[in-house]
TrEMBL record:
Protein name: Ig-like domain-containing protein
Species of origin: Xylocopa violacea
Lineage of source species: Eukaryota, Metazoa, Ecdysozoa, Arthropoda, Hexapoda
The UniProt record lists the keyword Signal: yes
Domain of life: Eukaryota
Every Ig-like domain range: 39-138, 141-230, 241-338
Keywords attached to this entry: Disulfide bond, Immunoglobulin domain, Repeat, Signal
Length: 461
């Protein structure tokens, strides 16, 4: 009986020990290893800046996941997007993938602005473990069509004109104005005029606009997200025609061609016409050629070519330009240009004179015209480079000079002087010195006799 009692106590202790071991195993055998090895993230969740319409992926790498699950959430909306590889959100642009080891990815295709926000990769431990990444969706700039009509881009000279350009995008674009041709933009106020290469703002106010400011203006929108976009605005300035004639008198020889020019400024484009002084309108034909040469947006040159000029072509020509705002005219006078031909031929002149004290003297000189005459009892000589006649000058009984015309000959405007001939006639002084009066001979004889008498007296002593 005692044996049976002991046997009963032993079997009860064994059962108690078994249950105690099972409790300890269930309480500590699993908990201790689980607390020692926890899931861990090997890399941070990246941030993304994405252009609208592109694709992007978030990557979450977790080690020692064991039986835990990875879930994707959008923090700002608290919406669960996916658990492990199963999608929860009903968005066809979202998907998840797993490489079979430790990497999970959330894919977003055709990114839209509402996709911006914070995304979370979460492991359902206790407490929960997670990491976050942010996505920013940027939008390239775009210029809105404000339906501006063409009339809003046309202004009368010296009036005001406003250009408007509105752009959208993320971040908000900056709008800049420039001239397409690179020239300055003129900004006027009540007290000043400023010229700038560019202007920043959605509205460009052109005050007191002039014809020189017409042309293409560019609205450029940029926010750092490519591509930068621009829109072209063409500005027209209305004014009445203006005509300038640089050469109002034109001379041309007969049988030649001549071109007459008129400078015209006009917008809208003027109707251009050429007229003769008799009112006849000229048209392009074999005799007349009418052309226009554009110079800029509002100026051009009118050309009238007249071929094979004859006597009837000389006279006045008028260029006229007319548009809805007015009319202008310019007149050019065309006259004949007479051309003269000159030759350079050596000429020989024969000039003779009569000396009252001696026989007639002869003078020959090439290339010059000599005239000899008596002036107040003395002989004078005149020479000229251009002349066509040579004269023989004689002194008659009344001391008057008489011109005798000799042979004419052509001579160049600037003949070269020829060397004097060896038999050049004596000058006035030589002629006068060659004539010795009787009174001078008598004086010389007296001096000689006196000198001889003195010699004889001295020798006799």
């Amino acid at each position: 009986m005692a044996y049976g009692l002991l046997y009963g106590m032993a079997s009860r202790d064994i059962v108690l020990c078994f249950f105690l071991a099972a409790f300890l195993y269930s309480s500590f055998g699993q908990a201790m290893p689980k607390s020692e090895v926890q899931p861990e993230f090997l890399a941070l969740l990246e941030n993304h800046t994405v252009i609208q319409g592109r694709d992007v992926s978030f990557t979450c790498v977790v080690n020692h996941l064991q039986s835990y699950k990875v879930a994707w959430m959008k923090s700002d909306s608290k919406a669960i997007l996916a658990i492990h590889t199963r999608m929860v959100a009903q968005n066809p642009r979202l998907s998840v993938t797993h490489n079979g080891h430790n990497t999970w990815k959330l894919h977003v295709t055709n990114v839209q602005p509402n996709d911006s926000g914070t995304y979370m990769c979460q492991v359902n431990t206790d407490p929960m473990r997670s990491q976050t990444g942010h996505m920013k969706v940027v939008i390239p700039p775009d210029i809105m069509d404000l339906d501006d009509s063409a009339d809003l881009l046309t202004a009368k000279e010296n009036s005001d004109l406003r250009l408007r350009c509105r752009a959208t995008g993320t971040p908000k674009p900056v709008v800049t104005w420039r001239r397409e041709d690179g020239r300055n933009i003129t900004l006027r106020t009540e007290h000043s005029v400023q010229r700038v290469k560019s202007y920043e703002g959605e509205q460009l106010h052109l005050r007191g606009i002039l014809r020189q400011e017409m042309g293409s203006y560019l609205c450029i929108a940029s926010n750092g997200v490519p591509p930068t976009v621009s829109k072209r605005y063409y500005v027209n300035v209305r004014f009445k025609p203006l005509i300038k004639v640089s050469n109002q008198l034109v001379a041309a020889p007969a049988n030649s061609d001549v071109v007459l020019h008129c400078y015209v400024e006009s917008w809208p484009k003027a109707l251009n016409t050429w007229y003769r002084d008799d009112g006849m309108k000229l048209l392009s034909d074999e005799k007349h050629v009418l052309t226009e040469l554009p110079l800029n947006d509002y100026a051009y040159q009118l050309n009238l070519t007249i071929r094979r000029l004859n006597r009837d072509d000389f006279g006045s020509y008028t260029c006229a330009a007319e548009n809805l705002l007015g009319k202008a005219e310019g007149t050019i006078r065309l006259q004949e240009l007479h051309l003269t031909r000159t030759t350079s031929v050596p000429i020989r002149y024969n000039t003779e004179f009569i000396d009252k004290h001696g026989p007639k003297k002869q003078l020959e000189r090439k290339g010059k015209h000599y005239t000899f005459g008596w002036e107040g009892g003395s002989l004078s000589k005149n020479s000229g480079n251009t002349g066509h006649t040579a004269s023989v000058l004689k002194r008659n009984s009344s001391n008057a000079l008489m011109d005798v015309t000799v042979k004419k000959s052509k001579v160049s405007s600037y003949p070269a002087p020829a060397p004097a001939p060896a038999h050049f006639a004596p000058t006035q002084q030589n002629v006068q010195n060659s004539v010795t009066s009787p009174r001078q001979h008598s004086r010389l004889n007296c001096v000689g006799l006196m000198f001889a008498f003195l010699v004889i007296v001295i020798c006799s002593w």
